[in-house]
Design a protein that fits this description.
By secondary structure, the protein is mainly beta. 8% of the residues lie in helices and 43% in strands. The chain is built from 2 helices and 12 strands. Strand 8 and strand 9 form a beta hairpin. The longest helix is centred in the last third of the chain and has 9 residues. The protein is globular and about 45 Å long.
């Protein structure tokens, strides 16, 4: 009897390497675009991504469809900032990953495809939330992401953190923040467009290929 052909996407899903939900920006149940004005925040445009704008300008997020052959994904996220850079400007998108214990004594590797309307630098920041009744929340440094006008893959690995001295309560999480505009770093832009695709966070020190999931699987993960 002939063996049936195995869907390679299904094989990739078995590993569950990517701890980000909707890292391919396929799901946008609340609409495909949203503009955040000063002090605006929430879960809009693409699912599972929280965004906030604390500036005098605006942040517009939108789900975009990739052209064939540009990036290895169907969709990507477009972030457009307008007059946001200033002494206290904080504009970001983030995602929370449940169960901080899974990162205990493990390196964390982040990878994604990225390009911008001009050469610039935006930043990543880590968030350790130990949950209700747990140790105090921690934000760790800024990591520069240098971007050009063409699609390139960015990867960075953070050293392992020992949580044995921490008290971990309910609803704890690890967060990754993407600071589109901030008073930190270099090459800031008041008006810029940053586009990002294939966002992956995994344990270990190697950035593996982006883990593709079906739309149905991503939708179910977003709705849980």
């Amino acid at each position: 009897m002939a063996l049936s052909k195995v869907n390679p996407n299904f094989v990739n899903q078995l590993g569950r390497r990517n701890l980000i939900i909707n890292g391919g920006f396929q799901v946008a149940q609340r609409g495909t675009s949203h503009t955040y004005s000063n002090s605006g925040s929430g879960y809009h445009a693409v699912d599972r991504w929280y965004s906030a704008n604390f500036s005098s300008g605006t942040l517009t997020l939108s789900q975009q469809t990739t052209a064939l052959g540009t990036v290895d994904s169907t969709n990507y996220l477009r972030a457009v900032t307008a007059s946001t850079v200033g002494a206290s400007a904080t504009v970001y998108s983030s995602q929370k990953i449940e169960n901080i214990k899974q990162f205990h004594n493990k390196s964390i590797t982040v990878s994604f495809m990225v390009k911008a309307s001009a050469a610039l630098t935006f930043q990543l920041r880590r968030q350790y939330n130990y949950g209700s009744g747990g140790s105090s929340e921690e934000y760790t440094g800024f990591t520069d992401v240098s971007v050009t006008t063409g699609w390139t893959k960015f990867t960075t690995t953070f050293s392992a953190v020992d949580f044995s001295g921490k008290t971990i309560g309910a609803n704890n999480f690890f967060g990754m923040l993407f600071y589109w505009s901030t008073d930190q770093g270099t090459d800031q832009r008041n008006d810029a467009t940053i586009e990002m695709a294939n966002v992956q966070i995994e344990t270990g020190s190697v950035a593996t290929d982006f883990e593709h999931k079906t739309y149905a699987e991503e939708l179910a993960a977003c709705q849980r």
